[in-house]
Amino acid sequence: MNERIFQVHTDQQRGFLERFISRQAMPFQCAFGPLREQRSLNQNARLWLLHTAASNVTGYTPDEMHEEALCKHFGYTEVERKDLFTGEITNKRVPLKRSSTRDKKEFAEFMEATEIWYGSTFGVWLE
């Protein structure tokens, strides 16, 4: 079975989950925790407006600005990669976390840190 995540909001849903669990073959693993709200589409759209504005100033693409912001905020690791065209081995920075898996609070913190960086370094911010 593939990993599944359930959000339980009502007693009826709790009952459905209890019956589902009782039918699962042993052994299996369960994890429980508070409900996490994923970042919103509006938050994501605002971040990409910011990356686009920064790209107009820096000459990097919005995708490149996004990767740099992720590395700056969440840290990164370096991986060796072989260039597909030249065969040359280079190091590439890879962020330790992605913004798409952050909850609303973590995403807001990332957005604020990115806006502070862009504003103080490149003179770029949103109204």
What does the model show?
There is one protein chain. Helices cover 49% and strands 11% of the residues. It has 127 residues and is mainly α. A hairpin with a 6-residue loop joins strand 1 and strand 2. Helix 2 crosses helix 3 and helix 2 runs parallel beside helix 4. The longest helix has 19 residues. The N and C termini lie far apart (47 Å). The relative contact order is 0.15. The model has no long low-confidence stretch (mean pLDDT 92).
Write a compact overview of the structure shown.
The protein is mainly alpha-helical and 127 residues long.
Number of strands: 2
Shape: flat
State the end-to-end CA separation.
Answer: 47 Å
Major beta sheet, specifics?
2 strands, antiparallel
Secondary-structure element order, N to C: HHHEEH
CA radius of gyration is 20 Å
Residue share in helix: 40-55%
Percent in strands: 5-15%
Category from helices, strands and their pairing: mainly alpha
Number of helices: 4
Label this structure with key terms.
mainly alpha, 11% strand, flat
Q: How are the SSEs placed, and which strands pair?
A:
Elements: H1 11-22, H2 41-58, H3 62-74, E1 76-82, E2 89-95, H4 104-122
Antiparallel strand pairs: 1-2
Helix pairs in contact: 2-3, 2-4
